[in-house]
Amino acid sequence: MDIQTRINEYTAEINSFEATTAEETEKFRLRFLVNKGIVRALFDEFKMVSAEEKRALGQVLNQFKVLAENKHKSLLEGLDDKSQVGDSDQDLTLPGRGFKLGSRHPLSLVRKEIVEIFNKLGFVVAEGPEIEDDWHNFSALNFPDEHPARDMQDTFFIEKKDGNDIALRTHTSSVQVRMMEMGKPPFRAIMPGRVYRNEAISARAHCFFHQVEGLYVDEDVSFADLKQTLFFFVQELYGEGTKVRFRPSYFPFTEPSAEMDISCSICKGSGCTLCKGSGWVEILGCGMVDPNVLENCGIDSKKYSGFAFGMGIERITNLKYEIKDLRLFSENDIRFLKQFSTEII
Ligand SMILES: [Zn+2]
């Protein structure tokens, strides 16, 4: 086989040669570029050919040598690239990982909405401890010792300290007491927070839930102020045209006391499963602060009067989003949680 034919074959071999490892690249060098390699052998053979053939082959052979050297160089560079990728453990050609936004918990969304509505009326947010003593959770709120009203709230008692029961607060009314003890009227505040009751967990009851209570104490506060404030609240929360009605009720810390219902937001009063056919849905309890409570907190009940109200955030949320099982709020099931807004404030 003459030199030209072999150069053609070797050229094809070089062009199609691939190496993924250092060993394979070295194999290429040993075959073509070392002293006993093909390139050198062809040059040795070239010396023996006639002058006429030298003229024809000289340039071809030089080009072949350059081709072999360049191929080796590019094989080495290819190895460099691969080893960099391997070292850093990162594939920079992969698409980026998207930044996933979480969503607000439905209770947080509703709590925020309630707070914003009362902020418009000048109510500030007040907070207090979740572990309370008997005085702030019961006695100051007109629940005397051994009074059956205490049985309305199944309580987690923690310990007895200096003859005083320490418990997980059963309502955020304890924050109202603390606020009145520490300050001077007028008071206009809402108290959102978590409360605890010793109840079996079911679709309709839980051992903890969330409340927003409100308190307004000033001179000449009347039941008319209470009605107007809560009327404004439901128009804002459930839309204009929502009707309210008050039913007489009993709470130890208010007199008179009432439950407030709103017209059913689903059926608009004609009756559905949500309102159990009545057209009305109960959303909160309220009343005029009992003068005893004001006096317990060092406020002159002859001069000042006030109203208070309280609602469960879960209840408001259930009505708003038609959620039928309370347990969903605390199970951290992402399929449930991700249905709510991702709005950032
Ligand atoms: Zn209805």
List keywords for this structure.
binds zinc ion; three-stranded antiparallel beta sheet; alpha+beta; 40% helix
Molecular structure report:
This protein is an alpha+beta fold and 345 residues long. It has eleven helices and ten strands. The strands form two sheets. It has a seven-stranded mixed sheet, sandwiched between helices. Strands 2-4-3 form a three-stranded antiparallel sheet. Strand 3 and strand 4 (164-168) form a beta hairpin. Zinc ion binds at residues 264, 266-267, 271-272, 274-275, 279.
Question: Would you summarize the structure shown here?
Answer:
This protein is an alpha+beta fold.
What topology emerges from the helices and strands here?
Blueprint: H1 3-16, H2 22-32, H3 38-48, H4 51-88, H5 106-120, E1 124-125, E2 131-133, H6 134-137, E3 157-161, E4 164-168, H7 173-182, E5 187-196, E6 208-218, H8 223-238, E7 244-251, E8 254-263, E9 280-289, H9 291-296, E10 305-312, H10 313-321, H11 334-337
Parallel strand pairs: 1-5
Antiparallel strand pairs: 2-4, 3-4, 5-6, 6-10, 7-8, 8-9, 9-10
Bound molecules: zinc ion (ZN).
Report the structural category.
alpha+beta
Q: Which consecutive residue ranges, at least 5 long each, have pLDDT under 50?
A: none
Cross-sheet strand order for the largest sheet: 1-5-6-10-9-8-7
Q: What sort of overall outline do the alpha carbons produce when their principal axes are compared?
A: rod-shaped
- The first-to-last residue Cα distance is 82 Å
Count, helices:
11
Say which molecules are bound, naming each kind only once.
Answer: zinc ion
Strand content: 15-25%
Which sheet architecture does the biggest sheet show?
7 strands, mixed
Radius of gyration: 41 Å
The secondary-structure element order is HHHHHEEHEEHEEHEEEHEHH
Question: Helical content, roughly?
Answer: 40-55%
Please state the average pLDDT score: 88
Would you count the extended β strands for me? 10
